[in-house]
Amino acid sequence: MTDQLDEDGFVKVERFKYKPVISSKKKNKKNSRYTFQDPDDWNIDDISINLKQRREALVNSRFYKDLLVIFDDHLVATKPHDIVCYGIGSMQKSKNAQYQFVLALLLRELLKIPGTMYIFDPVMTALDMELCKLHKIEIIAENEDGKRLADKPTLFYMPHCGRGLYSNTLSANWNEKHLPNVTIIGNRFDMYVGSQLEKDLKRECPYLIPAVDILDVVLFPKEFDNNQIFSDLSIQTFPKETIDKLEPDFWLSVPKDVQ
């Protein structure tokens, strides 16, 4: 039987999956204890209940209300056709991944994405993949190392990814035609460029160095759940009017031996 989704896009469930651990004395109800089911034993109903709780906590937070204003002012106008999610992690195993996944679903809804939502992370479990299919998210079959060409306006949702992965996404779109199609929600590039050795940056993430001079950055609000899940994230875009003013030599600023 096909799972049914509720109005929020989550699986309808009839009950919570808690395991009672009853005291052997059984004097009264106060002697009963309860433990949460181990995530390794979750099914699709269990993970859906969990995500609904995460969604409720997120949308009722001050952080999210502030984030909606930022999205209205700076993200809606990018009109992404697709969303590509890299590096969220395992929703079955990680609290951070659960919140980040919920925000990705909210983004698809808020932006009224007309195209496809894609996802890839090598740590995703079979249950994670089942969850993605249930939410009509296309799982990228092979690890493309972030090197996806943005033929259409594309939102790359990459919270807390490695700096090399950000650089790879830029490398795949490093020209005046495709780079304006790229919007990245991820860690600020200037955090890396301003604080780490240039020789290391040139070796591990060479495209971040010239990128910081041509992108627009809008920071996320600072606080949510002790500022860990969405800390230091931002919306980073490459305005076409900026790209159009670049000299041809700019695109050669990354040496060919590292491209």
UniProtKB/TrEMBL annotation:
Please list the residue ranges annotated as the SRR1-like domain: 75-236
- InterPro entries named among the record's database cross-references: SRR1-like, SRR1L
Q: Coiled coil where?
A: none
Q: Could you name the domain of life of the organism this protein comes from?
A: Eukaryota
Q: Which Pfam families match?
A: SRR1
Q: Which GO terms describe its cellular component?
A: cytoplasm; nucleus
PANTHER family to which the protein is assigned, alphabetical? SRR1-LIKE PROTEIN (PTHR28626)
Q: Can you tell me which family this protein belongs to?
A: Belongs to the SRR1 family.
Query: What is the official name of this protein in its record?
Result: SRR1-like domain-containing protein
Organism the protein comes from: Mucor velutinosus
Which taxonomic lineage is given here? Answer: Eukaryota, Fungi, Fungi incertae sedis, Mucoromycota, Mucoromycotina
